[in-house]
Write a structure and sequence with these properties.
The chain is an all-alpha fold. It contains twelve helices and no strands. Helix 2 packs antiparallel against helix 3 and helix 7 (124-140) packs antiparallel against helix 8. The protein starts with a helix and ends in a 5-residue tail after the last helix. The mean pLDDT is 93.
Length: 242
């Protein structure tokens, strides 16, 4: 990653010299932001996001602007700035057109919903993102994995809005298809099911079982902080078990 960041910085510096090549400048900034964000250098990534936002005032193509606003919003959410994240994702939605690329529109809306939910943002716009993603996937077809991951996103919203029975039913379906999912995605499904069952308080054994599975899968996927979240929920339940 240090080499990737260095190369991206050189590309951004070179592109900045080409004043009549705005598209190249935007692409270089997008790449630099991605490299910094993937390296957890979020403060530096945000500085570059502000540079990119200024470039976008020059009226680039809608598709290019939409992708860039999407990236800026992602960094804002990662920095625990949900209001900024929502603002930039709103701009992304205004620039990305379902008529130009319906599959990309579906991916954006699902990704936007997921990162909003991870930040605890459950305002109506989040549900609208889920609805749009589901509609787009129903039109373009999408793979079975796409549909399962969308079901997981919907279940996450149900958990956060206190609809635990509906969430548990959907999550059990997702988990039944876990062979199609990446390890960290399956871990997230078990974590959410554990949270739903914990909230329902009618089957603590099943809640703990799912949370232990989640902890194991997150550890296997190299996500120790998420594994720790599952462990905290287990420890919260265990004193109440007979």
């Amino acid at each position: 990653m240090p080499e990737a960041i260095l190369a991206a910085r050189k590309a951004a510096a070179n592109a900045a010299l080409a004043l009549d090549q705005q598209d190249y400048q935007i692409k270089a900034q997008d790449t630099l932001i991605a490299a910094l964000a993937d390296s957890d250098q979020l403060d530096d990534a945000w500085v570059e996001c502000l540079t990119l936002a200024a470039l976008l005032q020059g009226n680039p193509s809608s598709q290019s602007a939409g992708m860039s606003y999407w990236a800026i919003g992602n960094v804002a959410f990662l920095m625990n700035q949900p209001e900024e994240g929502t603002k930039y994702h709103r701009l992304a939605a205004e620039n990305l057109s379902p008529t130009n690329d319906l599959e990309l529109w579906a991916k954006f809306n699902r990704a936007s919903a997921e990162i909003r939910l991870a930040a605890g943002v459950v305002q109506p716009e989040t549900l609208e993102c889920i609805d749009r993603a589901e509609l787009a996937v129903s039109i373009v077809g999408g793979s079975e994995r796409d549909r399962i991951e969308l079901a997981l996103t919907r279940a996450h919203w149900l958990v956060l809005t206190g609809q635990f029975d509906a969430a548990a039913e959907r999550l059990k379906f997702v988990i039944s298809k876990d062979k199609l999912l990446a390890t960290h995605t399956a871990a997230e499904a078990h974590l959410l099911l554990g949270r739903a069952l914990k909230a329902k308080r009618d089957d603590p054994e099943a809640a703990v079982q799912n949370l232990e599975t989640s902890e194991h899968l997150f550890s296997q996927a190299g996500a120790p902080s998420r594994a720790g979240s599952a462990r905290e929920l287990i420890e919260d339940i265990e004193p109440t078990r007979s």
